[in-house]
Amino acid sequence: MSVSVMLRLATMADAELLLRWRNDADTQRFSLNSDQITEQQHIRWLQQSLSNPQRRLYIAEYADQPAGTVRVDSTADYHRISWTVAAEYRGKGLAKAMVKLLVSQLTGTIVAEILPGNTASVCVAEYAGLTYQNTHNGIMYYESQTPG
User: Fold this and answer.
1) Looking at the 3D structure of the chain, how many domains does it have?
2) How far apart are CA 81 and CA 57, in angstroms?
3) Would you place residue 81 in the very low, low, confident or very high pLDDT band (cuts 50, 70, 90)?
4) What is the secondary structure of 76-122 as a DSSP string?
């Protein structure tokens, strides 16, 4: 079964939603920064993210409801992607759909950093066409090279 999602650019109006998703216990457990984030820290991060021309932050919508987020940080050498799915939407294939959609819009080298034990994100990365490259400093690196 294929899940259909739409990506829209995040705005400051998404701040509360993004903070709730970020501080979800499972999201924290598998984040490179596992600290609880305060509202003040989050607002500052979101303002910086939205004004950063090298970063695009999207809200993934499923059935016209916000269901997750994907982010891409781009440099001259690669695109680093990350994602989170709202707890109530997990297990429905949304992460696979939204990450594959994001990856389909990028060209060049795409990298995802995944903590060991995060089998769900490994499956998502592989579904989107990324393959395991190596583990460095306790982080597994998955990568894809697209024409462009």
Assistant:
1) 1
2) 10
3) very high
4) SS-EEEEEEE-GGGTTSSHHHHHHHHHHHT--EEEEEEE-TT-HHHH
CATH code for the domain of 68: 3.40.630.30
Which pLDDT score is estimated for 36? 76
CA atoms within 13 A on the CB side of 130: 32
- Measured between alpha carbons, how far is 83 from 18 in angstroms, rounded to an integer? 11
Q: Which domain holds residue 66?
A: 6-146
Q: Within a domain: residue 40? A: yes
pTM to 2 decimal places: 0.90
H or E, element range at 71 = strand 65-74
Residue 120 dihedral angles phi and psi, to the nearest 5°: -60, -45
On whether residue 121 sits in a domain, the answer given is yes
Give residue 32's pLDDT: 65
What share of the chain in percent tops pLDDT 70? 93
1 falls within a domain: no
Identify the helix (H) or strand (E) that includes residue 144. Answer: strand 139-146
d(CA 94, CA 40): 29
